[in-house]
User: What shape does this take?
Amino acid sequence: MISVEGVQVDPRHWIGGRRISADRTFPDISPIDEVFLGDIAAGGASEVDAAVAAARSAFPTWAALSAVERGAILRRVADGIDERREDLARVETRDNGSLLRSHRRGVMPRVAMNFRFFADYAEKLSHPDLDVRGHRERITYDPAGVTAIITPWNAPLMLATWRIGPALAAGNTVVLKPPEWAPLTASLLADIAHEAGLPAGVFNVVQGTGAEAGAPLTRHPGINRLSFTGSVPTAGVIAAAAAPNIVPLSFELGGKSPLLVFGDCDLDLAVDLAVEQFDNAGQVCLGAFRMLVQQSIAEEFQARVVARARALVLGDPRDEKTDVSALVSRPHFDRVSGFVARALTGGARAVLGGGPNAELGGLYFSPTILVDAKPGSEILTEEVFGPVLTIQTFADEDEGVRMANETRFGLAATLVTGSSSRAERVSARLDAGTVWVNCFFVRDLGAPFGGNGKSGIGREGGTYSFDFYCDVKNTVFSPNGWKESSHG
Ligand code: NAD
Assistant: This one.
């Protein structure tokens, strides 16, 4: 056991309802102060084999339960998450540096909701019968088998449970490979699920790195679905690994989303939405880091955003007053620093920040706003995944929309305007899986979520999740051939 913020966390794998010790380990380092938290099991092909075998053997019994029976267990898992909310929040904060106050208020309640919502949804899931030339077509959602889930470090428990919830509710069993930069809360989830009565083998956790534990899972012939959240380069490797087994993929990847601010907008709202992009130190896939502002208000918008962002409190994420915390790891910190340094060398100007925070040191990077970046340069086209915003200006609606869509990604787009007709026109033209109008980050779990272009493959949420996690079957009943007098 390792003790993190006073919480006991088991660093071993969880396979077939048992803790499995590891021959090898990797160190878990906290971003807050770069302190060593403990050695975590480093799985490989043999642990993945064992986890897939456990999930396969648990599948028939779990799949045979009704949605109501599965739902009762999943709601108990949600209750267990609620009971341990504070432990989960403190451990996640220590592990990946995200704000404790966000976990307490928003993230951990949503983690529990990921189980309750999909448990409820599965119970009501149905498709109306179709009728073709007197034949009745009945559409059913059958469990698909073993689901492999691979997740990133920026919101590890929320992103994992957003897939584990529907996969289990659908009747699948799961093998989770958590991120090596934030592995701890997955282990607590295994404890909670076990205590809630989830049968052995239904949910398994193989800890380890992407190359050693992730890769064998993605090429395993025993998996039936693969849900991956992470970066585009990794997605390419995973798609190739899964291809020989023809495993259906759900990919939720990166973004370079725009915040399109029109001259007719409520400027207070636009400034609020801009500053919100520094949440989680900008380590948010949906973040609207490309500010595109109509020339008529650009000067005032920039001045107000800079003033507000300058007042953000940088520091320890366990402090309720902190707004922006450390970046997740030294390699990631170096990557973000490199992007900003190259942008500045290439002619961009920092109107706020512009580099590591000298006062706090460590992995603390100052909230940064860049202007005058060279069109087409990497700071405007690549995902930085840090507290770094750029501001560009546009003359009119056509130019604004063109610039917003000038990206190989298409995860989200946010527009701020006071005109409903402009909102209709522009939102229809934006190339993104989610478009927010005068708001940000608001989404029902029933709504489709996913990205266009390089931001992903497929959609999850509500029925879209079950379309992916289930084998959707069409059974066609003929009106003829029945020996009974009537066929229901
Ligand atoms: P990453 O791609 O480096 O790693 C993600 C996961 O994949 C980790 O668990 C890692 O161990 C694993 N992995 C790495 N190589 C692998 C391989 N060869 N085979 C199997 N698994 C492998 O991404 P990251 O740095 O952890 O996360 C940041 C990225 O995630 C950003 O691009 C961000 O936009 C994206 N993201 C997307 C969403 C979304 O919902 N669209 C949400 C959060 C994060």
